[in-house]
Every structure is written in structure tokens, then in C-alpha cells.
Design brief:
Shape: elongated
Number of strands: 17
Largest sheet: 6 strands, mixed
Strand content: 5-15%
Number of helices: 30
Helix content: 55-70%
Structural class: alpha/beta
Radius of gyration: 43 Å
Mean pLDDT: 76
Strand order of the largest sheet: 6-5-4-7-8-15
């Protein structure tokens, strides 16, 4: 039974007062009669005051009043199903539940104000499907898309700052979660209403908004909070005392970020509603923006309804009051003369009293009929549940689910019945229906039912992840890893909800710890597997450049940490950087293997094949070269180990010195093993990128995405180019010495061993002009790059730019003289030979062929330049990934 106006039931407390008043009135009448005449004369002068008649009339009166009060409460019982078909839009409300929403610049606070505004909005959306997502450090779907606004309102009441799995404020993740929850195919508009204070922690909300725009999903952003000074975030303890949230001893002031919300709304053709701290009606969004949206036919469904039964109570209540009025207060006398001639009253007989009692009993039974019917519904539901449990134990899950559904019809929306149905559906293999029923059961007030529902939701999510990973989770591709970890994250969230409801749930605590250990182990396995695959796919130069780029990023992070004050976050960031430094040191041994393979003797390659490095002159020279390069690699490894130890100990100055030692050793290896054409091409490409970066710093330094420009990092990059420019003329002189003298005169005639009709092998490209130009112009480059490096370190990009451009022009003059690769036999001039692969670059030249490395074709040079640019882009992305470590804004996972 349900009540529409249960407040009226409080009026039943008036019935005892009315009963007491009736009893008091009866006693007053009896006392008045005793005062009026002697007891012997009362029976002759007035009719008797029968106690049974008084109780009967009073009982009818009280019953009539009680029935009318119950009718005013509008009882509803008895289930029927109604076919509902509605037209509307799909709308998700994204509600920020981070702790910054507790700021009280909006009365009573931002969160409660947002919940009140959502109620106003729902009144304008009678036929639309509405869902609710609460987000902070991670989003959580509180209510999926539904037309049942009563269910959504009940769930909205329970929303608090603990409704999201983690603390923080990730708007981008919430938008992506809403996009995933919408139907892919649709015949109606899809809308997101974002209610937040605009604070975000690097979740890339603009990129998420672009994804919504691609799906034609409009976002209406509502900004709550003060845009000026902001407000502090209150925290109340158990005693009700108020203190304010602090970070590192400083109080946190939260203010609204309007710029971000405007950009999100602009990208999706939505609208921004600047609520700020003023009063407004969120229903205006509907009237101004949502009323004209395309509404589609929502799938017709059977809705469970409860019949109105107040008419019965009104009827029987009025009947009881009418019967009370028809029953006389005194019995009617029958006149008969007695012996003395007096007239004596005759009382009604016993049979008449029995008939009236029977009528009264019948009325009472009729009034109690609805209660009996309700009790019958409970007994019927209990019978179906008992039968369903027996079928479940026998393994007949489909039959058990049918019986539980019948019990739900007899006793609708009972959380235990929903839980039983969910268990049967899950055992029968229908996980989606089981999840929906478990979510319904999780809202129960019964802690045991709610805890078990959350536990089973976690188990279902973990089972889905296990099925997705398959028998060999270590071999999962990145897409499967991401989806599996998302499902395991849902399982972890449900297990935590289970422990929040019932802290002593041992199975949930065991599974939570098991998942934590499994995820940690698999992440290590995947990382090691990716490292092994990367080692196999890379050649010597690629691996060397990768190690150098990661080492440069780690040094930038350590150098930025020297400008930060000591704090727990900084210490944690440096500990993580130390662990990354230790893992990078493990790449040195594979690098040494690559060096040994590159210098090992190999069969002669095709004519014109490019060696990975200048060939040695003898086997002893090769051994000496390997030993020399291995020594440099060991020096880099030693520097990495020292840097890792110093970073963990928070001793940054020695760590930076060891990291610089490592970079110098890696650069020496690259200078030694890189072929002259590639050495020149990569150096030229790096100088060109430095020129472009300096131009950006000069034109718009305030638009740098990383905050303040890191001139120290740019200056270090320029220093690397300076070192290479110093080596360039020396490398050119060495290559010139190895060139054979130019051949003059005509070619010798063919002999018998070489017939005239046999085509001769193509002559190796002539490097001499490029090498001579490098010897001529090379000494002019180091002063220019050195001065540019000094200017950049002093934060003077305008002064450095002319020197950089002059150095780039000299590099290009040398690179233009590299010979072009001729087309292969049988190919047209337009079909040039494709650029050599990395595996081709690794093959060393045989000892018998000591000619220098051939030149690069135009296509090969362009391909090499594109590769260098791509690696520079990856390097800058790694810098952005470690940018939070530099700023000290490290996200700490408190739960794990």
C-alpha cells in the first residue's frame, strides 16, 4: 500500500481525544440524572442509559472519522499495468559533487542549490528521458536514462560529495561518460546539462566537448559560484564544528572558471548559463533552449501503477457516520398498563440488539476488507518467493526468475524481491537485466540488501573484465586493456560502496584487495611486455634517440622541482621520477646488444647500402669501437643509477649532475654511430625546430600551453646542436680521408671476365662536395649556436633568433650538396627509390668495401625529416605528461 498524502495520517491521533470526550459526556449525563431524581424514580421518569448503545454509537462515530482521515491520505494499492508511449529528448544531468561544491557563496551551498535547480528542471521535462551522472575525480552513473522522475528524484536526494569514487574535479571524464551512455542510433536530440563551478584538473574537457559535437550532442553549462575572490570550502566534524579545507597549511579558495564553461558550450552549439551567485530558475533552460529540440518516440513500455482506493474509505466512512446518526440514543418505550394503571416502558428485546450488533460487525468487516486484501498480497508474494528460491536451488533459473517476477507484481518495488530476481537473471546469463535489478536493490534502506547488491554488481563487472581479457590477459592489446581496466574500476567502485554500507563485508574487502594486486601485477607485466616489444622493433639509432628523449624529460622534471618548495607532493613526484629513472637504466643493456650487432661482421649487402656507422678498418678496430661505445653506455648507466638514488633521497643537485653526465654519454654514442647523411639531416631538422620554437616565444609567449616558457630546456636543446656542430667538420675531414682518389680518364675496356653487354654496377654517390662544404662552413656554426644557447638560457629568445637562423642557413647549404639517389633500373625518374628502413640503416658495410655512406635522395631526406619531427613531437608530449610533476600538482590515489 502506498500513500499520496501520508501527512494526513497524523490526524488519527485525534481519535483517542474524541473517545475520551464521548466517555466524559456519557458520565456527565449519568451524573446529571442522579442529581435530578432519586435512584428509585429514575427508571420511571426517563429511559435507561444503556452502556452498549453508548459504545455502539461512539464506535460508529470514531470509525467514520478514522475512515475519512485515511481517505484524505489517498491510499493506493492493487497493481495494474498501463501502456505508456511518450515523446521526448534524451538528457543527462552532469552534477559536480567535488568538495568545492560545498562552498557557501550560494545559499545554502553550491551542491544543494544545484539539486534544487534540477528539481525545477524536471518539472519542465514530463515526457523526456533524463539521467543523472555525479562526478568528481571519476564519474558515476547514478540514474540511467529513464522517464521515471520519481525514481530520479529519490536518487537525487541521496547525492552527496561521496557519490563519486574519488575526489577531484574531472569535467572531461564526466562528458565522455555521458557520451558513452547515450544511444548511438537515435531519432531525437541528445542534450547534456552540466552543473559545476568550472574547476577542472587536466581532464581535457574541450577535447571531450569536441567528441560530443561530433555526435551532435549539445551541452548547456551552468556555472555556480563566485567568479571573483571565491569562497573557502567548509568541513564539518561530528560535533558540528566548522573548519575550512587546507592544502599544505594554506586555506583553499574555490572560484568559478567561466572561461572553460563558455568554451565547452561554444564547441557543441549549446549555451552557457552564468548562474554565479544570483537566484535563477533552471526551468528557463527548457523554455529558452530545450523546447524546440527534436523529440522522438520513446519505446512504449508497460508501467506498473497503483490504483486509487480512497473512494472506498470515503464511502464507508460516510456510511458509518450516517448509521451513527440513525441510531437513537435511548430505546423507544412500549406503553402497557400495569396493575396500578401506570404506563411502564418496555425495553427492546435481546434479538433486536443482536441484529444491530450483526449489522455493525458487517460494516466493520467491510471496512477491514482492503487491509485483508493487502495482507493477501503479501502472502501471495511470499509464496512466489519461496517457490522461486526452491527453483533457484534446483538450478532452474528461468523458472525462478518468472516466479520472482510474479512476486514483484503481487508486491511491487520490494528491494528483496528485486535482489532475488537479479540473482536469478545473473545465474541465467542475462547480465544486463541483472545489473538493472541490482541497481534497484542497491537503493534499499536495508543495509544487508544494499551491501549484497553492490557486491554482486562488482562481481558482475569483474566477470565481464575477465571474459574480455580471456585466457591470456598478458597478451591483451591496448584497446582491450583500457576497456578491461574500466570494467575493473567499476568493480572496485561497487566493492567500495559495499564496504561503505557494510564495513564488515569480508568478501568485498577480499575481492577489493585481490583486484588491487591483480591490476598492479598486470600493469607491470604489460609494461615489461611493451618494453620487450619496443626493444625488438627498434634499431640502434631509434633506441638511442628514445633513451635520450626520456632522459631529457626526466632531467627537465628534476630541474623544475628545484624551483618548488619542499612538500609531500614534491617528494612523491621525485620518488616517482627516481623509479622511472631506474626503469630507464634497464634499457642500457639492450642498447649495448644493439651496438654489438651493428658492429659485428655481416655478409656483404647490396651495392650502395648505407652502414649504420663509419666502418672500422679491421677486426681489432671493430673490437676497440665496441669497447669504446660500451664504455660510454656504462657511463650512461652509472649516471642513471646515481640519478635514481639521488632523486629518491630528494638530493636534486647531484641528481641533475648525474643526469647531465648520462645525456653527454648518450650524445657521444649518437655522434659516433650515426651515418654522416643522417647525422647532418637530424641536426638540421633539430635546428629548424628550435628556430620555430624561438619564433613562437617571440611572437606570443603568453600562449604557451605549458604555462611559463621553459627557457632552460630550449637552451639545453640548443647546446646539443652546438656540440654536434663542433663535431661536424671533424666528421667531414674523417670522411674525406676515407674517400678514394677521383678516377680520371676513360673507363677500361671490357674483358672476358666482364662481357661488354653486362651492365656495370652503379658507382657510389659522390660525397666530396658536401664534405668539403662541411669542412669550409662547419667552423662558423659553433659560435652561432653557442651564443643562441646562452641567450635562450637567459630568457632572451629575440636575441637568440638571428643566430639560430644564421646557423640553420649554414646547415642547409651543406645539406643541399648531398647527392641525390638515382632511380633504380626499370623505374621512371618519378619513381624514386623508397627511403631506407631502419633495419637497412643498421647493416654495417663489409670490411672490403670502405667507401663512405651514400647520399640521401630528396624523398629519403624528406622522410627522415618527418621522422625527426615526429620524434620531437613525441618528446614534447612526454614533457607535457610530466608537467604536473614540475608544478607539484600530483594526483595522489588515497584509496589504494
Amino acid at each position: 500500500m502506498r500513500w499520496e498524502n501520508p501527512i494526513w495520517l497524523l490526524a488519527l491521533w485525534v481519535l483517542p481525544l474524541l473517545a475520551a470526550a464521548l466517555i466524559h459526556a456519557h458520565r456527565r449525563r449519568a451524573a446529571a440524572a442522579r442529581r435530578f431524581a432519586d435512584p428509585a424514580m429514575i427508571g420511571r421518569l426517563m429511559p435507561p442509559l444503556g452502556i452498549l448503545r453508548v459504545w455502539f454509537k461512539g464506535g460508529l462515530f470514531l470509525i467514520g472519522v478514522a475512515l475519512l482521515v485515511v481517505a484524505a491520505a489517498r491510499p493506493r494499492f492493487g497493481v495494474y499495468f498501463e501502456q505508456i508511449s511518450a515523446r521526448g529528448v534524451d538528457l543527462f544531468v552532469l552534477l559536480d559533487v567535488s568538495r568545492s561544491m560545498l562552498a557557501e557563496d550560494v545559499a545554502p551551498n553550491r551542491l544543494e542549490r544545484a539539486k534544487s535547480d534540477i528539481r525545477d528542471l524536471l518539472r519542465k521535462l514530463p515526457g523526456d528521458r533524463v539521467g543523472l551522472i555525479a562526478f568528481a575525480g571519476a564519474p558515476a552513473v547514478i540514474v540511467p536514462l529513464t522517464t521515471d522522475q520519481g525514481f530520479l528524484l529519490n536518487a537525487l536526494e541521496a547525492v552527496s560529495t561521496s557519490s563519486a569514487p574519488r575526489g577531484g574535479s574531472l569535467i572531461g571524464d564526466a562528458i565522455r561518460k555521458a557520451i558513452e551512455s547515450f544511444d548511438v542510433t537515435r531519432d531525437r536530440d541528445q542534450v547534456i546539462v552540466l552543473i559545476t563551478d568550472g574547476e577542472d584538473q587536466d581532464s581535457f574537457p574541450l577535447e571531450a566537448a569536441e567528441g560530443a559535437a561530433e555526435r551532435e550532442i549539445k551541452i548547456f553549462a551552468v556555472g555556480l559560484g563566485d567568479t571573483g575572490e571565491g569562497r573557502r570550502i567548509p568541513v564539518r566534524d561530528e560535533a558540528g564544528n566548522v573548519r575550512y579545507l587546507k592544502h599544505e597549511g594554506q586555506e583553499i579558495w574555490s572560484r568559478m572558471d567561466e572561461r572553460l564553461l563558455k568554451e565547452i558550450a561554444l564547441k557543441t552549439a549549446g549555451a552557457y548559463i552564468p548562474a554565479r551567485t544570483r537566484a535563477y530558475d533552471l526551468g528557463q533552460i527548457y523554455e529558452a533552449h530545450l523546447a524546440g529540440l527534436t523529440r522522438g518516440e520513446i519505446q512504449a513500455e508497460k508501467r506498473k501503477r497503483y490504483a486509487e482506493r480512497f473512494q472506498w474509505f470515503v464511502f464507508f466512512g460516510l456510511a458509518a457516520l450516517l448509521a451513527e446518526m440513525l441510531v437513537v440514543s435511548y430505546p423507544r418505550p412500549v406503553v402497557s398498563p400495569n396493575a396500578a394503571g401506570d404506563v411502564a416502558p418496555l425495553h427492546t428485546g435481546r434479538a433486536r440488539r443482536f441484529r444491530r450488533a450483526a449489522v455493525t460487525a458487517g460494516l466493520v468487516l467491510v471496512c477491514l476488507a482492503p487491509a485483508a486484501r493487502a495482507a493477501g498480497s503479501v502472502r501471495e508474494a511470499a509464496r512466489h518467493v519461496s517457490e522461486g528460491i526452491r527453483e533457484f536451488q534446483r538450478g532452474q533459473y528461468a523458472q525462478a526468475a518468472r516466479l520472482f517476477a510474479e512476486a514483484d507484481v503481487a508486491l511491487p518495488d520490494h528491494p528483496r524481491i528485486a535482489y532475488d530476481r537479479a540473482c536469478a537473471e545473473a545465474a541465467g546469463g542475462d547480465a544486463d537485466k541483472a545489473i538493472a535489478l541490482f541497481q534497484q536493490a542497491a537503493l534499499a534502506r536495508d543495509e544487508q540488501v544494499a551491501a549484497e547488491a553492490h557486491y554482486n554488481l562488482g562481481s558482475l563487472a569483474a566477470a565481464k573484465a575477465k571474459l574480455l581479457f580471456g585466457a591470456q590477459p598478458e597478451a591483451a592489446v591496448p584497446e582491450v586493456r583500457q576497456e578491461g581496466l574500466r570494467l575493473l574500476g567499476q568493480a572496485v567502485a561497487h566493492y567500495r560502496d559495499c564496504l561503505r554500507v557494510q564495513n564488515g563485508h569480508a568478501a568485498a574487502r577480499h575481492n577489493l584487495e585481490l583486484l588491487r594486486q591483480w591490476i598492479k601485477h598486470m600493469q607491470q607485466v604489460w609494461a615489461e611486455r611493451d618494453r620487450q616489444q619496443r626493444r625488438q622493433e627498434m634499431d640502434l639509432l631509434q633506441m638511442l634517440e628514445m633513451i635520450t628523449a626520456e632522459q631529457t624529460v626526466l632531467r627537465q622534471a628534476a630541474q623544475a622541482a628545484t624551483r618548488e618548495d619542499d612538500s609531500p607532493r614534491r617528494r612523491q613526484a621525485m620518488s616517482q621520477a627516481g623509479e622511472q629513472q631506474r626503469q630507464l637504466a634497464e634499457e642500457i643493456e639492450p642498447l649495448k646488444d644493439k651496438i654489438r650487432e651493428a658492429l659485428a661482421p655481416s655478409p656483404p649487402g647490396p651495392p650502395g647500402a648505407a652502414p649504420a656507422m663509419p666502418p672500422p678498418t679491421a677486426d681489432s678496430d671493430a673490437d676497440q669501437a665496441v669497447d669504446l661505445l660500451h664504455g660510454l653506455a656504462d657511463r650512461a648507466h652509472q649516471g642513471m643509477k646515481q640519478a635514481a638514488e639521488r632523486l629518491v633521497d630528494q638530493d636534486l643537485a647531484p641528481a641533475l649532475e648525474a643526469q647531465q653526465q648520462t645525456l653527454d654519454a648518450l650524445e657521444d654514442i649518437y655522434i659516433a654511430v650515426a651515418p654522416f647523411p643522417q647525422f647532418l639531416a637530424t641536426t638540421t631538422a633539430r635546428q629548424q625546430m628550435l628556430v620555430e620554437r624561438s619564433q613562437q616565444l617571440v611572437q606570443s609567449p603568453e600562449e604557451q600551453t605549458d604555462g611559463d616558457p621553459d627557457y632552460e630546456a630550449v637552451g639545453h636543446e640548443q647546446t646539443v646542436v652546438r656540440r654536434r656542430s663542433e663535431v661536424l667538420p671533424l666528421r667531414a675531414e674523417q670522411e674525406l680521408k676515407q674517400l678514394p682518389p677521383p678516377v680520371a680518364g676513360p673507363a677500361p675496356p671490357p674483358t672476358q671476365s666482364q662481357p661488354a653487354e653486362e651492365p656495370a654496377a652503379p658507382a657510389p654517390p659522390d660525397f666530396r662536395p658536401a664534405l668539403e662544404k662541411a669542412v669550409e662552413l662547419g667552423p662558423r656554426i659553433p659560435p652561432l649556436t653557442g651564443q643562441a644557447a646562452e641567450d635562450l638560457k637567459n630568457a632572451q629568445p629575440a636575441a637568440a633568433l638571428p643566430h639560430q637562423e644564421q646557423a640553420l642557413a649554414l646547415f642547409r647549404q651543406i645539406a643541399e650538396l648531398l647527392p641525390k639517389q638515382p632511380p633504380q633500373d626499370g623505374a621512371s625518374p618519378d619513381q624514386q627509390q623508397p627511403p631506407p628502413t631502419d633495419s637497412q640503416d643498421q647493416q654495417p658495410q663489409p670490411e672490403a668495401d670502405r667507401s663512405p655512406s651514400p647520399g640521401l635522395s630528396q624523398q629519403q631526406a624528406e622522410a627522415l625529416m618527418r621522422k625527426v619531427r615526429e620524434r620531437d613531437r613525441q618528446y614534447r608530449e612526454k614533457q607535457q605528461e610530466l608537467q604536473p610533476f614540475r608544478r607539484g600538482a600530483v594526483v595522489v590515489e588515497k584509496d589504494w
